[in-house]
Amino acid sequence: MDCRTILVTGGAGFIGSNFIHYLIETYGDQVEIINFDALTYAGNLENLKEVEDLANYRFEKGDITSSKEVARMFETYDVDLVVHMAAESHVDRSILDPEVFIRTNVLGTYNLLMAAKRAWEVGPKTYAAGKRFVHVSTDEVYGSLADDGSFFTETTPLDPHSPYSASKASSDLFVKAFGDTYGFPFCITRCSNNYGPYQFPEKLIPLMIHNALKGLPLPVYGKGENIRDWLYVADHCKAIDLVSREGRLGEVYNIGGHNELRNIDLVKSILQKVREALPEGDPRAETITEGLIRYVADRPGHDLRYAISPQKIHQELSWLPETCFDQGIERTIQWYLENLSWMEHITSGAYEAYYDAMYQHRGVTADKTQEPQSLLKA
Ligand code: NAD
Ligand code: TYD
């Protein structure tokens, strides 16, 4: 990547901040990075404190739902590549409040497409050389698979079920429409569930690590039989970088971990790994047992299984996930253990209100002393 100016939207979030670290580690000062982020509850500049003083990194606070703020980025910088990750990203929140998902994920993506088109277009269906828009999407747009060994491929019809996945599918279709109608230079990536450092503890893996360390109940939706295909975030970052440089314009690339796990098996494995990661004699080990698991009311419209075939990105760009799950989860747990203050900052204040709103009706609270006697059953 020869000194390109990269606009990363949502760079203060989980994948965004990992991606910025990846770019700096891989390309040093050969890249100019602009991190455009509204700093919602999910955005955290603490994720980027090691890079914040670098001359080739800049943070720009801004909201993709504002066409003005987005246009300002393209007026201020000669952007070569947009890696668009800013989004509302949590399914459970989308069930409670879908509207913000439509605004951010659909309107926000449209604003970025329009601004990039205006800045890059040099004639009808012609764009300045080397410009590219990489839209980071999700396998959830494909809907749900049966537990039958089948996979999502790039040609699987879109069939989203949650407001989150519906908003992501809509944004994907706008990106494609800009390509079809205006010849806009884009690639779309669709990845499976990521895990790793800096993930907000609303998602399954960091939530379970956090609760286990605090001796709090571990809420497993339904019977815990839903299956996700877990991808270590650094492997995902490498794939996005490859698509940004070598992916064919107008194409979709699925990015998967080849690592399917039932939720309940994953939670049990986290319990064991967290226990093993604690220093000998650590009193927390005694409470970190399967006794913490609570089967709670299921998520409405809960997709049974996601599994990705990464055959296309493997064949075209030689990408395969490099981190096996055992290694990835151990690294992740170690990171959370070494960054307890990061977790403390995130889980104080608004997080407790979120947790209670999301889990109290399922019979689980953040307050150990108030654990109800009768828990909702799936
Ligand atoms: P995240 O929720 O951790 O971070 C989202 C970031 O976007 C935050 O920094 C937030 O402040 C920012 N943001 C939200 N609304 C904004 C707005 N209106 N304007 C500007 N910034 C805004 O999300 P993530 O897990 O890092 O996901 C990144 C992208 O990857 C998303 O597009 C998501 O749909 C996609 N994705 C994530 C996963 C996963 O497992 N985490 C899987 C598949 C796809
Ligand atoms: P999540 O991390 O929210 O990702 P997604 O819904 O986008 O796949 O959830 C992963 C799986 O874990 C999903 O099947 C729902 C389940 N889950 C629980 O069982 N308990 C929880 O507290 C959470 C957050 C998720």
The ligands bound in this entry are: nicotinamide-adenine-dinucleotide, thymidine-5'-diphosphate
Q: What percentage of amino acids are in beta strands?
A: 15-25%
User: Which stretches are low in confidence, meaning pLDDT under 50 for 5 or more residues running?
Assistant: 370-378
Using the 3D structure, state the CATH architecture of the largest domain.
Answer: 3-Layer(aba) Sandwich
Q: Evaluate the radius of gyration.
A: 21 Å
Q: What is the 3D form? A: globular
CATH class of the largest domain: Alpha Beta
- SS element count, helices: 13
The end-to-end span amounts to 50 Å
CATH superfamily of the largest domain: NAD(P)-binding Rossmann-like Domain
Strand order within the widest beta sheet:
3-2-1-4-7-8-13
Sheet with most strands: 7 strands, parallel
Q: Which structural class matches the secondary elements?
A: alpha/beta
What kind of oligomer do you see?
single chain
Secondary-structure element order, as H and E? Answer: EHEEHEHHEEEHEEHEEEHEEHHEHHHH
The average pLDDT value, as a whole number, equals 95
Count up the domains. Answer: 2
Tell me about this structure.
The chain is an alpha/beta fold and 378 residues long. It has two domains: 4-196 and 231-255, NAD(P)-binding Rossmann-like Domain (Rossmann fold); 204-224 and 260-309 and 325-359, UDP-galactose 4-epimerase, domain 1 (Alpha-Beta Complex), CATH 3.90.25.10. Helix content is 41%, strand content 16%. The chain is built from 13 helices and 15 strands. The strands form five sheets. It has a seven-stranded parallel β-sheet, with helices on both faces. A hairpin with a 2-residue loop joins β5 and β6 (126-127). The longest helix is centred in the N-terminal third of the chain and has 22 residues, at 99-120. The chain is globular, with a radius of gyration of 21 Å. The chain starts with a strand and ends in a 19-residue tail after the last helix. Residues 370-378 have low confidence and may be disordered. Nicotinamide-adenine-dinucleotide (NAD) binds at residues 9-10, 12-16, 37-40, 42-43, 63-65, 85-89, 104, 108, 136, 138, 168, 191, 193-194, 200.
